[in-house]
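Re-run requested by the PI after the first attempt was lost when the workstation crashed. Everything re-entered from the original request form. Ligand of interest: flavin-adenine dinucleotide.
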Amino acid sequence: MARTRREFLIDSGLAIGAAAVGSSFGACSGRAADGRYDLCIIGSGFAGTFLGLSAIEMGFVTVILEAGSKPRREGTAGTLSDSFEFRSTGGLRYPVNGTRAITVGGASVHWGGVTTRLWPEEFRMRSTYGRMVDWPISHQDLEPYYCRSEQLLLAKGHAPVPGAEPARACGYPNEKNEPYEDPRVAIEGKETAYFPLAHSRRGGNFAVRLADEEIPAFEVAGRGTLLADRQVIDIVTLDGKTIDHVAVRGLDGSSESIHARAFVVAAGVVESARLLLISHSSWFPEGLGNRHAQVGRYFNVHPSLQTSFEFRSDLALAKAHHRTCSLNDDYRLEGLNACQYQLDVLASGGGRWKAQPETEPAYENHVTLSSTETDRFGVPLPELNFDYTDLDRRTLERNYATLEALSRELAAPGTEIARNDRWRAHPAGTCRMSESEQTGVVDRHNRVFGLDNLYVSGASTFPTSGTANPTNTVVAMTLRLADHLGNQLG
Ligand SMILES: Cc1cc2nc3c(=O)[nH]c(=O)nc-3n(C[C@H](O)[C@H](O)[C@H](O)COP(=O)(O)OP(=O)(O)OC[C@H]3O[C@@H](n4cnc5c(N)ncnc54)[C@H](O)[C@@H]3O)c2cc1C
C-alpha cells in the first residue's frame, strides 16, 4: 500500500536514531566507520533530497554533497556559486542562472509549485507521431511513482477532470472540495476541456521548499549526512568499471575524497553533464558515459509565450489558472510540436494567455566544456550551444497566432493585447535515458552506460520534455531509481 508522506518523512528522518538496519556498515552516525558511504548523492535539489530520504529509509548510510550553502547566520559570508558561471555560444541565450539555484535545496527555493504529469503518448513520441524519440519507460511504469511524488510534494488539486488531464490512479493528497468551473473557451473553434492546475502547497500559498522540512528530516537521521559548501570536481574510477570516489573542494579550498558503493549525479541539467565531461580518464577520454558523444546533447526547454489583456465586461470567469492540452494532438498530427495553453484569470481582473511549447531535443543543442575558461578550482566552465530548430520556429509561429486569436476573443474591444516572451525554468536533456549507449547516457534504470555504480537523476535524463512542468516527473523518476538502488545495494 502506498505510504503517506508523513510516514515516509517520519521513517526516513524524524524517527531514526537507531542502528542502520540493512546497511553494510551498521553505522548510526552519519559517516560510516571506514569513510565509505553506501550512497553518495551530488546535489540537494528535488532529485537529490528525495533520493536521500528514500535511501536512509531503506537503511543506507547516505551523504549528499551540495555546492551551495545553508542559510547563513549574519556575519558569515562566501559561497561557491561563483564557480557556476556558464557561457552561451548558440543563437539563443537561455538564462541558465535564472533557472536554478546553487544553494541547499536547489531550485526548490524558487519554484512555483505547479505539479503536473506527462501524458502517456509523451513517452512514445516516435511510435505515435513518427518524430523525436520514445522513452525507454512508459507512463504506466511511472504511474505509482507519480502518486507517491504528489504525496511528497503535498499536491493540492481538484478532482481530476477526465479527458483534460492524464488519467490518474490516485486523487491528489490535498483535494480541493469546491467544484471547478471549467471556462469552456473555444480554441480555433474547438470546444476545449480545461483542468485547474494542481500546486504543491505547504501551508497557505507556499510550495514545498526542501530546506524547511525535508533536508532537516534527512540530516536528523543517523544515516544521513549533508555536506554543504562542497563542490564535486571529479568522479573517479580506478578500474574503468566502477566509481571509487569523488573529489571534492570546500569553500576554503580544502580537498577531500568521498568513497561510496554507489554514486548519483543529481546536479541539474547543465552541471550533471559538466561533471560527466570533466571526469575523463584513460578509460573514458571524452568523459564518463561519453563513448558515443552523447553527454551534454539534446538540451531542450519550454519557451514561454504570453499575451496579456483586459477581459470583456460580459465575462465572469473564476480567478484561477486554467490549463488545456486540447490542441496537442492536432499540432502533433500537423507535424508541429505540442503546446499546452494556460489562461490565467488574475485578481486584478486582467487576463493572460500563456503557451508553453516543447522544443525539439536536437543533437546540436548541447552543453560542452569551455576550452579557455575555468572556475576558481581550474575546472572548465560549461558552454551552452542552443538555437531553435526549423520545427521549433514553425511551432512558435503557430502558437503566437493562436494566442493572439484567443486573446482577441476574450479581450474588451479596443484594448491592447501585449505580447511578452520569456523562458520557463524547465531545462531538460544532456544525459538522456535511452535503450543503448549509441543514443543516450543512462539506461532505463538511470545507470550511466559502461559503469556499474554511477547514476544520474533529474530532468537531464528526460528524452523529451512534453508539455508538463518537470518537477513531478523528476521526483517520480527519482523514487523509481530509489527502488532500483534498494535492490542493487540491499
Ligand atoms: C523560478 C522557477 C520556477 C519554477 N517553477 C516550477 C513549477 O511551478 N513547477 C515545476 O514542475 N517546476 C518548476 N521549476 C523547475 C524546478 O525547480 C526544477 O525542475 C527542479 O528544482 C529540479 O530539481 P533538481 O534536483 O533536478 O535540480 P536542482 O534543483 O537544480 O538541484 C541541483 C543541485 O545540485 C547542486 N550542484 C550542482 N553542481 C554541483 C557540484 N559540482 N557539486 C555539488 N553540488 C552541485 C546545485 O547547487 C543544486 O543545489 C521552476 C524553477 C524555477 C527556477
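Saved to the shared folder this time. The domain at 5-73+86-489 is CATH 3.50.50.60 (FAD/NAD(P)-binding domain).
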